[in-house]
Structures are given as C-alpha cells and as structure tokens.
Amino acid sequence: MENIENTIRKIGFYILKKRFEKEYLQISKLSDRDSINNFMAQKRNELFLHAYKHSRYYHQIFENIGLIRDGNLDLSHVAEIPLLTKEIIRKHHQDIISDDYQTRKWFEYYSGGSTGEPIRVIQDDMYLKWGAATNYFYFKNILNIEEPTVLKVVLWGSERDLFTGTMGYKARLQNWLSNTVFLNSLKMTTGDIEEYIRSINAFKPEIVRGYAGSLFELCRYAEKKKIPLYHPKIVISAAENLSDTMRHVIESNFGTKVYDFYGSREVSNLAGECENGLLHSFLFWNYMEVLNKDNQPVQEGEEGRVVVTNLYNYSMPLIRYEIGDMAILGPEMCTCGQVLPTLKKVNGRILEHLVLKDGTLIHAGFFGLLFDKVFEEVGIEKWQVIQDDYDKIQINIVASREISDQFKNDMNNKIRIGMGSECKIKWNIVDDIPKTPSGKYLYTKSLIWR
Q: 297 has which bridge partners?
C-alpha cells in the first residue's frame, strides 16, 4: 500500500511541477544581473503596452504623461507613472481591470485586510504559473530544497485559506500529493498548541512554514513547558515582521535556521532570505522599488516605502502599486552567489510605524527591544502598542501576574525617549489581544494613518 501511495505521489509531483516547468526554465537561464535586468525590462514593457491597450485607467494615465507615443514606449516617463494605492484600486476598480480578462482563466482574490478594508483584485492562470515558478526557484536555487516533494507543515492563519482554499476536495488532494499538513494558527489555545506540537513531532517535516507570530507563540509554549520539538531542515517565517527575539526563540526550539520570506496577496512572492541573512527580491517576477517620502529611490541602508509592479497579471495590472510596507534597501550584490538584488530588512506595514508630529517614524522594533527582553521576567504574555494621536498611546498587556507601577514608570521613561517627553501613556491589562481577520498579530498599530 505504501509503495502505491508513493507512486501516486510521484505522479502528482510530476503533474504539479509540469504546470510551471516552462516558466521556471526561463527563470533558471538568467545567470547574471544583466540578463535579469533585460528580462525584467522586456516583461515590464510588454505589460505597459498591454495595459495601455486594455485598461481604461492606464490608457488615460499613459496618455497624460506621454509614456506611449505613436504606439511606442517612451521610457523616460516611467518614473512619472503615479503610484497606485489601495484607495485608487477601490475607486477605479473596474477601469483598472483589462477589458480582455475574460479570455483568461481568471479569479477574484482579496488582500488580507491588515491595513483596513481588504481590496479585491483579479488574477489569472498565467499569474499563478509564474508565481509558482518563482516559489519553486526560491526553494531550489536559494535554499537547495526540492520543495514540492518534501514533508511540510504550514502554520497559517487565513480563514479563507484554511476553510476554503485548503478544505476543498482539490486542495486536500493537492496537499496530500505535496506532503503538506496545514495547522490553523487562527485557533491557538494551549490545547491547540499541544496538538500542533504532537502533529509536527509525528509528521517529522523537512520544512515548517508559518506566520512569524504563530511560530513564535508555539515555540515559546514548547520552551516554557520544556517540550522538545522535531528539528526540520529549515523554518520559513512569513506574513509578519520577524524580530530578532522571535528569530532567536524559533531557532532555539526548532534547532535550525529561520529564513524570512516576504510576500503579499496582491502580488504574491516578493523576496526570500538567503544563508547570509539578506532578502533577495525576485526581479523576474515583481519589479520592486523602495522609495523615500519624495518618491525617489533610496540608497543602500536607507528605509523607504515598497512599490511593486507585477509583471504577469494581465487581467488586472498593478503598476507601481504602493503595497503599504516599509523596507531597508540592501546591497546590489550578495556574497551567497545569487545575483538578485536585495533588501536588508522588511520593517512591516506602514500602519505599524508610529508617527510623530514632525513626521518622524517609530517602527515596531523600538517597542520590541523594550518588551521582548523583559516580558517573561515580569509576567507579560502578550503586548500591543496602539497610537491614538501623535502624543498619546495605549499599551495593552496580557499578564500572568500583577505588573508593578515601578515597571510601568521605568518603561514610560524609556518610551518617551522615542515618542517625546509629552507622550501620554495608558496601560490596559486585558484578557487577550485578538489577531487580525487574516490571522496576523500586530504588535504596534497607529490609528493616525487612517
């Protein structure tokens, strides 16, 4: 019986891989930066021409800025293409969609909604194939793992993924064929966590992948209860900002390196971490820009807003889409051997950055440094900082014992070093801190952005 199952799985692996094999072969031939840049430029120009012909929104914009002249591209105007925001997508949704989208195998998809109201986008079969090829490239060419064939546990929190995308007959079959076990991180009581630990230890996966916060929560529990975890080959942290403390706890308990992966529902895979700790952006799939407040490219080591052009979604082009994230640009080349450009770090969603009156941004890492080092010794189980106004924040705490006034006063003094001496701080002891509808845990949140 086991031999029959293995044979069926091998056939399934072949079928799954065959769907994106042609796209992966094109990617794998890009051996140097020049070939990657030329490939990206060609795909981007083809997308521009398609958008001009088939999207009312882009046709008007390209006409206004002179990007298209007599049917040809004038690339000197690319930087003048206005940034696409979530608000623009909601307002001009039908005009952005290509008038020929029904000629493709299209479907609707929704963003996770962590920045507020989810947005609805149209994607298609070509988009899926290139996205799958990019994912395969990351595991095979950067992590040296044949991802479709190895045992995998995925700790994920999207209600749609868990109860629609992974529970249907086709999805269950695909999960079985690809040796994947899904665990619901939306539901993580102590009983659930213990069951998930048993599942991981029994399944013995080579890859464990999940939300950074969910992996951290599971590992903290295992460490506290002194429950050993099976050591996979790698752990992939995704969907949330991975702090240094979270990385240390996850690596210590799983006994292996954590690789950070950066993606988005609207444009899928963006960048994946290599052995050197840099995130390589997949330039052949998404053209990524990191821009300052004046919409100019930042320099290496500087933080900016992430702007993305997906090169293959012809059904609903997203060109210069401001995704809502902040990142630090890395060096152009990495010593790991990969020729893809890099990010040094993704600093999370813009709304997770607190903002001062003069425009200074304070990102979640500031509070992480304060809380992560002391939370266990003072009995803090969970924490969250919410900014109500420029000089007013609330700190929600789930605690296992009483938090002393002295501790609060000490923390207030440290917080005011970053937030200003006039900052008003309110402490709330709560029973729980809920996750977002998509299962993510926001450690910091500023209401000013809304």
A: 291
Burial (CB count <10 Å: 0-12, 13-18, 19+), residue 169: exposed
Q: Tell me, which fold does domain 354-449 have in CATH?
A: GMP Synthetase; Chain A, domain 3 (3.30.300)
Helix segments in 180-337, DSSP class H: 190-203, 212-225, 244-254
354-355/361-362 β-pairing = antiparallel
| CA angle, 329 then 335 then 336, to 5° | 100
pLDDT greater than 60 at residue 114: no
Comparing CA positions, the residue from 241, 243, 187 lying closest to residue 218 is 187
Model confidence at 129, pLDDT cuts 50, 70, 90, reads very high
| DSSP states of 48-109 | HHHHHHH-HHHHHHHHHHT-EETTEE-GGGGGGSPPB-HHHHHHTHHHHS-TTGGGS-EEEE
Tokens of 169: 């007959």
> Is residue 357 packed enough to be buried (19+ CB in 10 Å), middle (13-18) or exposed (0-12)?
exposed
Average pLDDT on 325-334 reads 93
Domain boundaries, the chain: 354-449
The two beta strands, 286-291 and 279-281, are unpaired
pTM of the model: 0.81
